[in-house]
Amino acid sequence: MHSHSATQKNSSSWIGVYIALGIVWGCSFIFIKLGLEFLTPIGVAFGRVSLGALTLVFWARYKGIELPKDKKLWLHLWVVALLLNVIPGFLFAFAETKVTSILAGIINAVTPLMTLLAIMIAFREEKPKNYQVVGLLLGFVGVLTVLGAWNGLGANPIIAVVALLFAVTCYGVSFPYSRKYVLPHKLQPEAIAAAQVSAGALTLLPFYLIDGIAKNEYRPGPVLAMIALGVFGSGFAYIWNFRIMEAAGSAIASTVTYVTPVVAVIVGIIFLGESIVWNEPVGALIVLLGAAIGQQRIKLFR
Hints:
globular, mainly alpha, 12 helices
């Protein structure tokens, strides 16, 4: 009886944070769309990482946590920043100048499959399992369904689709890369996140100074959206994510990618009046099913 209540207490400690993370990351696509009202795609990418970096550095200071000292580790963290913040931050914003925030949110759900692919191709510690191959193939069918491939990609400009898929490929590579080169240093999550996001902000700064502002018109809605995207989406979200990993394990933490597309679709319809075509949610379900099989959440093979 005692252990049952302890487990419940443990789950209640991360459930709230998990829901918050799903909502914040799910809303990030609508925040990007709003931010594009006054910022260029580079401006959106820089805005979110610079605010995220300030948040995380202040938080680390407040907690008395020191940033990493090792130069080689900083190099690895910079690579992670490129893969997690700089390149996808720009590509998602660029794509959303041409497609709905809903489509961006759904394509983002391909991340677990790209992680699987990266592990199978570049970080081959083990041979791919049957369930991983099935999951990937199913996920690929899901992506083609989301895009309505039978219409020749229909209304979605090919460059935007390529940008979104390349962005999630960067996400996919970042996880095994971090596991191999960053996590063995056994640093506190806050230190890793603060250093990584700061490296991303410094990388984007010169580009922002050249071409960051789209127009000098700062309406409260878009400005608040950018603040939320930076402080929560690129700041506290990392701390929450690590906290869920500590309390519930990385397998549970990674399932937040199943929540984000659902949130993205709902907020896109309600707040931006975006339309959704039948094949987008159907394809999203196939993508999520593929990811679930690939991560062995749904067991097809013994």
